[in-house]
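S., here's the first fold you wanted:
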Amino acid sequence: MEKKNILIFGVLAVGLILIMQLFNLQILKKEYKITAENNAYKYVTRYPVRGLILDRNNNILVGNKNTYDIMVTPIEVKEFDTLDFCSIFGLDTLEVRERFKEYRKYRRRIGYQSLTFLKQVSSIQYSIFIEKAYKFKGFSAVSRTSRNYPFAAGANLFGYVTEVDQKFLKNNPEYRSGDYVGASGLEKSYEHLLKGEKGYSILLRDVHNRIQSSFEDGAYDKAAVPGQDIVSTIDGYLQQYGEELMKNKVGSLVAIEPSTGEILALISSPGIDIEQLASINKHYKEIASDPYKPMFNRAVMSSYPPGSVFKLVNGLIGLQEGVITPSTRYNCSMGYHYGNRKLGCHAHPSPTDLTQSIMMSCNAYYCYTFRAILENRKYDNIGEAFNNWKEMVMSFGFGRKLGSDFPAELGGTLPSTSTYDKIHGKNRWKANSVISLSIGQGEIGATPLHLANLAATLANRGYYYIPHLVKDSPGHSIDARFKEKNYTLVDTTHFHKVIEGMYQAVNAAPGTGGTARLAHVPGLEICGKTGTAQNPHGKDNAVFICFAPRENPRIAIAAYIENAGFGGTWAAPIASLMVEKYLTGEITRKDLEKRMKDANLIQYVPVKRRR
């Protein structure tokens, strides 16, 4: 009897729980009702305003402007004047009819959904449509925003926003068809902050599927949450000026604040026209077919031979290894001679010490230095010495990604002992076999970002902060890794010894052999190093890195210009104009500025044109 009562009690209890839950769902839980009976409701998406991108001085780099999408709910559409509709938006009537054939074909799948019919129509078209909306039942307009660019610069840096596709939706289920997403640059890196959160309004339908009113006076509507603004490290005016200097040139400029690792300007030329960026889909084919590849961000994606600026790294390693001192002198007889071969050099006084070798960019000096590094007797064999050299080079950030917050950053290249074992045979190579590494040639590649980071490392006398594009701002703190000092394996006491040579390269008296005299600006104490990187595809590439002022540096910069020849002719003056602009706010060397802006060096860059 007792067991029977327990069973009855249990059944009653379960039944009571089920009844209460059904009451809760059907009577109390309107949220469930709204979802379950969705045919009775129409959801109108409220799209958030995308967050702004500001420069380091809170100027708007990337803003928003109002635009509108024309939506259609196919099941609600009645016969309408197609010609009148098309005249509003400049459409072809055949295009509209074909679209509705698709809707009829997939009517069951579409159901009561509203679909995007036209994207980003102008305010004028929107106004005309609203006046005639009563003629086009089933069509409506949704307020959206698109990007605008007050500084008219930085397209490759900011990146673009585009509508999500099916591949993206498959991997990102939190997005829906018709949503927009950052596809490159800062828009992509900081999509999670910039995108905001969608909202919606719920409208009530009657039995004839006609919209009657807002459900519960909007009690269950959800407001859109605007995207978060981000403060970039970029100086908008410096970015704009750099793009002016790089017009009609192929290459890159990267400027960094050494004391923080903040990127002040990042220019890839030729780049995307900023006017095309907000409507990238309309211009994509044109941009993608450009033989100069404007979508390719050379600042972080091109792995170039660093050329003679890399001599600074080998000089520092030589000092650290004790194979040279500042007073070590080597002869140069128009180059470095080994066996019946020669690595050539330009004419200059000989022999040179460390300071003079940097000032005059002597190739032979660094061939001897590199050879001494690899033939150092403290190592058992050349492989061990080479591995130690490579480890030191990597401590400067070369041969790997620096870890910036730019999504497309590449790591460059550095050879290994296995590289040369494959080329020459195991244990069958020596220093002279790889002597081109002494002057930044051969199997070594670096991006302009790597070279700007080298300039910042020199400015800091032995350490760098990972270069980055976004600053701390209210509601967002940058990753801790951007605030950590990264020390090289070269003792900080050695850096002033090469910096003297960099100073003399720019500021030595005329006629004394300084290779970067065109970068001289009285009072700024620019320290720099020229480079001329060999290029199998035409003229040599021009390279220059520098920082200023000499003490307490505020800017470090790398200029890399393809097929421009000697680094001191084009790269050095362009970089120095950037320095002068940033430090003083004005340019005193107007003739030089005009010559750099007017120069058309793109004509020397061979390209494969599509037929």
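And the second, which I think is the more interesting of the pair:
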Amino acid sequence: MSLGALSPEAHEALAIAMNQIGARSNSGEGGEDPATYDDSDGFRRDNRVKQVASARFGVTPRYLKRADELEIKIAQGSKPGEGGQLPGLKVTSLIARLRHAQPGMQLISPPPHHDIYSIEDLAQLIHDLKTVNPRARIGVKLVSEAGVGTIAAGVAKARADYILVSGHDGGTGASPLSSIKNAGVPWELGLAETQQVLVANRLRERVSLRTDGGLRSGRDIVVAALLGAEEFGFGTGVLVALGCDMARQCHLNTCPTGIATQREDLRAKFEGRPEHVINHLFHIAEEAREELAALGLTKLDDAVGRVDLLEASPDSSLDLSFVLNATDASMPRRRVWERNGDAPAPPPPSGVIDNAKRTVGAALAAGDSREYRGSAGQSFGAFIDDGVELSLEGEAQDYVGKGMGGGVIVIRPFAEDRSPDPVLAGNTICYGATGGRLFVAGRVGERFCVRNSGAMAVVEGAGDHFCEYMTGGVAVALGAVGWNAGAGMTGGVVYLTDWRQLNADSVVAREVPKEDEAELRALIEEHHRRTGSPRAASMLANWASAVAQFRQVVPVAQLQAQAAQDAAAQSQESAPKTAA
């Protein structure tokens, strides 16, 4: 459950409680307040499990490196088929700052599509995360539905360390009721299928299996273990322990107990304490011990995968034969591998590079710089931070600068390449970037700067969906871009010489304001200095003509919000004053 869906007080109380008893709380998507990373007083206040979802809200290199576990959310149990959602009335200045977004703007995290189109793409993201934080376990969140076992098998082969099968029961703390009612299936069905498929394909031993979605009692825990889970997640129950009265108003920002709200007057009503959660979980643990004792078992590990200890209720009319289908007893029923996959290789030194080298730069520390020549593999410069510089003479594949939080990436063509319009990088460049600077002296593929929220990037042409869902930062294109530019954009600024195919519902183009010309020129000058771009040199030599070709593209939503603020301020100024 994210900080945004929950109040800061409730979010932190859960983290403190779980840390104190050796369990792990999950940040949800949306990031965290770095202020919670100060544990000099001996108390850890942040979440050991940090989520990485399709919107990349709040995902910074520091956030990733702080995690004990990184969870890729590619499905959501309580609303399968939909992504994350935070209504604008919950996006306060604090939440907007942490998510690198604009206050008051609704935030949508659509079902994964930007860098997860296939199991192979998922494997690349898992590799990225293991590179940026080699000590963290990497997990993938799936939804309980028919066929989830097949997906789970692919996830295990993609080298995830754990798989979460999330059931339909529960809430999100942010989504409307229409999104979470009559959707999905119980965790028991998805868990049983996943366990059976993983065991049959000799994959169960490589991964841990986790489940959630309405676990409320010790009996639920034991049943989940018997069906194959060895790790268990709690949501609604622990919120009730903190004081939730199930008002079903989470998405309205009107939670009467101060848990699922960002309103300061309601947050003041929050009375939950970490010890309330701890006490609740100890009661569940005691009940689980009683259930295990009744089965003749002394520890929970011995219950994992023991479907033979379950039977259908005599008065049930349901056919539970599929759920109660026992796996081969000779095959491992739980994880025995320490780690699913080898640790990623260290970054190569400067020199020749080929496309077998993936995620180059993610493991570098501040002050490191590398110069390469050749064809880089996927995720060149992904998740680099301040003080890191990467320079490439040649070309790169998809995901250059994915999630970069700082530093500099430069890509220029081979010295012998005389093409007037070279293609130098693939799709989804600067996806989810929160900072840093990127300069590409050529064209790139589709979805350039998608979900960019803080990086400054210059490119000489791009494909469709330029700056899709952008929430911050600056992007400059010195050449043509494709269809649907600026779709879903709610923040940041774009400069284009080709604005014929903008998404008119999301953005508008206007002449570059005089006060912003210096910013545009400075970026093009830096682009020329770092890449030697002939196109940039030509523009700078004829600046008056060049700047007239550009248009500044800004979000409609941002203009409307500013207009509303100006109108409110003007109304307040013109209101009659009462004499003191």
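Why I say that: The domain at 8-309 is CATH 3.20.20.70 (TIM Barrel). The chain has two domains: 8-309, 352-566.

Talk tomorrow,
H.
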